[in-house]
Amino acid sequence: MPPLPFTLFANPNAGTPGTVVLPEGGFRRAWAEITAWPGYAPTPLRTLADSHGLAVIRLKDESARFGLGSFKALGGAYAVAQLVRAELARHPGSGPETITVTCATDGNHGRAVAWGAQRQGCRCVIFVHETVSQGRADAIAAYGAEVRRVPGTYDDAVRIASETAAAEGWHVVSDTSWPGYTQVPADVMQGYRVMVAEVLAQWEGAPPSHVFVQAGVGGLAAAVSVHLRLNLRPAPRLIVVEPDHAACLLASAELGERTAIGGELDTLMAGLACGEPSLLAWQELSRAAAAFMAIPDEAAVAAMRLLAAEGIVAGESATAGLAALLRALGDPAACETLALGPDSRVLLFSTEGATDPVLYRSLVE
Ligand SMILES: Cc1ncc(COP(=O)(O)O)c(C=O)c1O
Q: Which CATH number do you get for residue 42?
């Protein structure tokens, strides 16, 4: 791959103690429920043929998760199930058809919520912003949800979904959290931990030394961080990777506090086009991430092609971790900062398959 620019910020607060944002009881409930769903099967953990001078690179391939094409199936659908159960317990005698769930999405989370709502028999309205592809909107509607397109970015859609829900008495099932709204997103993140627990059962040999994980609002990265910190000693170095035009966690780390970034959030990595970190994610990552990186779209596309050559179908938001690893490996100073070398054992998450098949083909073929 040709050299491409990237940004690397070593976290000065890495290792600061604090409370665990995702308690173990919540994870045990998520594991028990999700692994009992019809069609549940662990997704493959693949070892890359080319280890790029490292001991091993392994990649959790989420392209076939529950037939939805991304790891998000674990989070949104589980949170809908929890919410419906709690609502029916609060209103005995009423049925799930009286409940409406809603969220904003760049595609994958909305698909997971729509699937979850269909499974629970409740109503579902999903808000998509203007640049979400029609293919992704159609895939959500295919699960019986009403899809509403709104102007602006993902963050604007989050606000509109929450205002509409307040006015209509609907329930927001968001994958991002903010002050006063943490229970549902915590359930979403506990669902993601199922994927990480599978990795630990599948991993052979010495445990991972590094994890490069992509972030939108940071929920995925924080779930990975919590699960690995609680289960591996020492915990692997965790590097959070974002698109350079939507690097809100990097900006927050540089500032030393959770902050939103403005602008168009213009990136091909649609699932990562978020301008505001999730509160819960920030509480975990601000003290547990070793470093934050930002990469350009071209690096992610090059990594998509590299994986395609190994027979792995990875969508635009799936390869930022690999792309960042390869950028770092080409830069001796970055390798030193991250302690990356021939003994390193790297874990990556290929978080989606070709969730927009037309776009995938145009980028890879
Ligand atoms: C495929 C994919 N990977 C990664 C992410 C990032 O997850 P989070 O927003 O929790 O950081 C998303 C979010 O939508 C996604 O769709």
A: 3.40.50.1100
